[in-house]
TrEMBL record:
Protein name (record): Auxin efflux carrier component
InterPro entries associated with the record: Auxin_Efflux_Carrier (IPR051107), Mem_transp_PIN-like (IPR004776), Na+/solute_symporter_sf (IPR038770)
Gene3D superfamilies in alphabetical order: 1.20.1530.20
Segments crossing the lipid bilayer: 241-264, 284-303, 315-335, 341-363
Classification of source organism: Eukaryota, Viridiplantae, Chlorophyta, core chlorophytes, Chlorophyceae
Entry membrane topology: Multi-pass membrane protein
Length: 380
């Protein structure tokens, strides 16, 4: 009675081993192409069951057979999962390598983006210009038939290129009809004007920049006031001066007197910490020579050609050798186009102002260009 548990306990693993061996042999016979994997897995489970107590061995066997798959199918399923994991790892490593090899996109600075926008705008304008040329060529290739007249040698199928042989009235009638057709086709005069404006965007952009310049408007306003006769009521030296308008001329004079000092002050602020002469000496000297040598002679020749008096001619000569206007620097710095050269020429012409004025006063009488007395000049 006491020996039966110890006698029959080891018999269960042996029976299990025998049954498992028989199943493995049958599996090998059924699948001769993969004999090793099934037998290996089965022996692995058999050895695991051999080393466990009966209850644990039965639990392991139940766990192995829970899915209803044979050991060979379980091995194939595990092998397939392993290959899928390897493929996912290879793909992730390739993606990581591509991310490392791909350089980060370069950030555009403000100047680069502005330059690209300007280039795109210019390319758009060039395309519009090319389309306009093609449209002109197609219009020139179309012949407008001219009606035949008695005694005329014109061919009714002739085009505009033969129109100069036609009588004036017929030519005008043909052109009027062609213009009327074009006007109707483009939607009337207003539509034609709108088409012209949209087709010449570059011209209108340049015109808008010029019209936004306050110097142009002030010059036009001054010319309009002088030509309209309002000056006799605004000028305090005029006998028709209106005292009630004195505040207007005082305000204008105050603004006029502050323009030049403000421009010189802005020029001085811009010069702080800049070596404006570096790389601009050659260009600056050429421009300065044109201004103080060539321009005075051009002014004197124009004054002589127009028959101006001696005082008016010498005024033009003296204005030609004066330093550059302060507004020149304002415009150059506004559009960032050569403020260094303008400053270089302004500084040199200011330094040379006194000897240049004296030379301009003495040279014309010496050469006989103008006749005036130089005896009251300081150097005589």
């Amino acid at each position: 009675g006491t020996g039966s548990p110890s006698t029959h306990a080891p018999a269960q693993p042996r029976a299990s081993k025998a049954g498992s061996t028989t199943a493995a042999v049958q599996t090998v016979e059924e699948h001769p192409s993969t004999p090793t994997h099934g037998s290996h897995d089965h022996h692995h489970h058999h050895h695991r069951a051999e080393g466990l107590p009966p209850s644990a061995a039965s639990a392991a066997a139940a766990e192995d057979n829970a899915t209803g798959e044979t050991p060979q199918q379980q091995h194939q399923h595990q092998h397939k999962q392993h290959k899928q994991q390897q493929q996912r790892g290879i793909q992730s490593s390739k993606a990581h390598d591509q991310e490392q090899q791909t350089p980060p996109p370069a950030k555009m600075s403000t100047a680069t983006s502005t330059t690209n926008l300007n280039l795109a705008h210019l390319l758009h304008l060039d395309r519009l210009k090319s389309a306009k040329r093609r449209a002109r060529a197609s219009i020139a290739a179309v012949d407008i038939p001219v009606p035949a007249t008695p005694g005329s040698q014109l061919n009714p199928e002739a085009g505009v290129r033969q129109l100069h042989h036609a009588p004036t009235l017929e030519r005008r009638a043909v052109l009027d009809r062609a213009f009327s057709r074009a006007r109707r086709r483009h939607g009337g005069p207003l539509r034609m004007v709108a088409t012209f404006i949209t087709a010449h965007t570059r011209w209108w952009a340049i015109a808008a920049i010029i019209l936004r310049n306050p110097m142009l408007w002030t010059l036009l306003l001054a010319v309009a006031i002088s030509a309209s006769g309002l000056r006799r009521w605004l000028d305090p030296a005029s006998p028709q001066y209106v005292l009630e308008l004195g505040w207007l001329i005082s305000s204008l004079l105050m603004l006029t007197n502050t323009c030049v000092p403000l421009a010189l002050f802005s020029n001085g602020v811009w010069l702080h910490g800049k070596r404006f002469w570096e790389g601009n000496v050659k260009k600056g000297l050429i421009i300065l020579a044109i201004k103080i040598v060539v321009l005075p002679w051009v002014q004197a020749a124009c004054a002589k050609a127009c028959g101006l008096s001696t005082a008016a001619g010498m005024s033009l000569v003296l204005l030609a050798i004066c330093p550059c206007a302060s507004t020149s620097f304002v415009i150059a710095s506004k559009y960032n186009h050569g403020p260094e050269i303008v400053t270089f020429v302004t500084v040199l012409s200011t330094v040379l102002l006194v000897p240049l004025v004296l030379a301009a006063l003495y040279i014309p009488p010496a050469l006989g260009i103008y006749d005036y007395d130089t005896g009251h000049f300081p150097m005589t």
